[in-house]
């Protein structure tokens, strides 16, 4: 078990520890079946408003995360990070990638 001082908020349901009370409170909702945030487009439900906001981008053509080398853009930061890790085909072997982020308009 990890040091309780390092992660003082402890979930009794799954034994995970958290440093931040706010993150811990958000985590506790995952152990309930309450999903009160509903997508108005496809009716999919979410436990957290932040999950719904992230999901809403899937219903748009917005791609706020772009590669600085080839300019290929992605809806999710994780997809761009995977692209960078695998090195885009357009970049020379010694070119370093940086992430470009474009602001997303408020979708809700």
TrEMBL record:
Domain of life where this protein originates: Eukaryota
Name of the molecule in the record: C2H2-type domain-containing protein
PANTHER family membership: MYONEURIN, ZINC FINGER PROTEIN
Organism in which the protein naturally occurs: Caerostris extrusa
Keywords: Metal-binding, Nucleus, Repeat, Zinc, Zinc-finger
GO molecular function: DNA-binding transcription factor activity, RNA polymerase II-specific; zinc ion binding
Lineage of origin: Eukaryota, Metazoa, Ecdysozoa, Arthropoda, Chelicerata
Entries under Gene3D superfamilies matching the protein: Classic Zinc Finger (3.30.160.60)
GO-annotated cellular components: nucleus
Compartments, record wording: Nucleus
Nucleus in keyword set: yes
C2H2-type domain boundaries: 9-36, 37-64, 65-92
């Amino acid at each position: 078990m990890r040091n309780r001082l390092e992660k003082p908020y402890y979930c009794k349901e799954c034994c995970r520890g958290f440093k931040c009370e706010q993150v811990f409170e958000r985590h506790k909702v995952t152990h309930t079946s309450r999903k009160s945030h509903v997508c108005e487009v496809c009716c999919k439900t979410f436990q957290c408003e932040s999950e719904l906001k992230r999901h809403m981008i899937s219903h748009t053509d917005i791609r706020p995360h772009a590669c600085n080398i080839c300019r290929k853009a992605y809806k999710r930061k994780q997809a761009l990070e995977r692209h960078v890790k695998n090195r885009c085909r357009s970049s020379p072997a010694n070119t370093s990638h940086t992430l470009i982020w474009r602001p997303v308009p408020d979708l809700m």
